[in-house]
Design goal:
Helix content is 35%, strand content 9%. By secondary structure, the chain is an alpha+beta fold. The termini are far apart. This is Ubiquitin-conjugating enzyme E2R 2.
């Protein structure tokens, strides 16, 4: 019987999943939509304290292509979101998730787009940053962008944007309760990182099977260097942004 080769994308995703379980990103919970499918992840995002999203419980799906990490995944919110850089269908408009092609019309440099050194951890950190600091230069939701600018420029006196966000946050409480999740509302709770146990022993078996051969430590080194760089994530079409990634 011929040995079946495991796709390199599957190996990469299992490595990332294990890393995120052992060292979670603050403000996120990650699970597989189906235990046997590494290409579809469900993410629960906790709204950061001291922001309009405080106390929120927002769900999203990350769908990975078969040639990951050479092509970017898609990130779609399942929870209804009102945000300048989130489309009505929940798709997130963010530079890091755009294919690494030269498109002068977009206003983005190729270096601001996806490249294989990026990973799920940098995506999650980018999305958290995006929630709190929308890019309004080329919005996915024009009405939300106009409303956000009014709120920001009036220093909170124009409350329409803030009120919509708070209503969306309150509407997520029921789902958090159904999922048995306590949403952090203080900075201390939000910053606590806990190990997420595997759902069953088969996860560890799958990991062992995938990595008995040619497992390398280079990816871990890349993760650490990216985190240490302290770079901020780019948003959708950030021609005016000062933000760049370390390549």
């Amino acid at each position: 019987m011929a040995h079946q080769t495991t796709p390199s994308s599957q190996k990469a995703l299992m490595m990332e999943l294990k890393s995120l379980q052992e060292q979670p990103v603050e403000g996120f919970r990650i699970t597989l939509v189906e235990e046997s499918d590494l290409y579809n992840w469900e993410v629960a995002i906790f709204g950061p304290p001291n922001t309009l999203y405080e106390g929120g419980y927002f769900k999203a799906h990350i769908k990975f292509p078969i040639d990951y990490p050479y092509s970017p995944p898609t990130f779609r919110f399942l929870t209804k979101m009102w945000h300048p850089n989130i489309y009505e269908n929940g798709d997130v408009c963010i530079s890091i998730l755009h294919p690494p092609v030269d498109d002068p019309q977009s206003g983005e440099l190729p270096s601001e787009r996806w490249n294989p050194t990026q990973n799920v951890r940098t995506i999650l950190l980018s999305v958290i940053s995006l929630l709190n600091e929308p890019n309004t230069f080329s919005p996915a939701n024009v009405d939300a962008s106009v409303m956000f600018r009014k709120w920001r420029d009036s220093k909170g006196k124009d409350k329409e944007y803030a009120e919509i966000i708070r209503k969306q946050v309150l509407s997520t409480a029921a789902e958090a309760e159904r999922d048995g999740v306590k949403v952090p509302t203080t900075l201390a709770e939000y910053c606590v990182q806990t190990r997420v146990p595997s759902q069953d022993s088969s996860s560890d078996l799958l990991y062992d099977d995938l990595y008995d051969d040619d497992m390398e430590e280079e990816d871990d080194d890349e993760d650490e260097s990216e985190m240490e760089s302290g770079g901020e994530p780019t948003h959708c079409y950030p021609k005016q942004d000062r933000i760049t990634y370390v390549e």
